[in-house]
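Hi, here's the filled form for the chain we discussed.

Project: internal
Contact: R.S.
Residues: 181
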Amino acid sequence: MPARPKQILRYSIQSGDDVTLPKELSLEGLFTRNGYRPAMALRRLDPQDYFRNLAPNDVLERRRVLIESGDYVHEPAREEDREAVIHFAGTFASVNHVRSFRELGAVWEPDFVLLRRDESEKVTGGCVCFPTGWSLAEKQNQKVSIVHGPVPGLNARLGSSVEQFFARLKPANAISDQTGA
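And the returned structure, exactly as it came back:
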């Protein structure tokens, strides 16, 4: 008896469509063979390797993106927060004339998000030119648990670990997400 051909399902979904997937396709089953499982796959890096400008073409692309749209930058309400981030960035890039996160984003390669510990790790500013399916503007003044809310199962499985991670994170540490998110 010949092998049964695999059934391939294709969906074309437009933004705003109300879509119901077949029962055999759970949201978790769409991601991996054994289902989606959020994980904290973090690796400590040398800050020089993480924060210095390594790809001049990426900096040029950031400048182009920032000129075309203001959606990627949110200035913090507190001047001292802005100054502290710019001072920190000056350790790794030339920021002599930088006075805003928009200007910093145009000369410093990494995307960055400012969280305030005294406000339960709320997003209070940043420059994210290359987000993966989210908007910095939408995350403003949100706690990390709310920011991660759209990630299936993350808060239920890792919420307390994420909160502990940020509570223990030292200012000079550089951590890379190894999950590919």
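Let me know if anything looks off before we file it.
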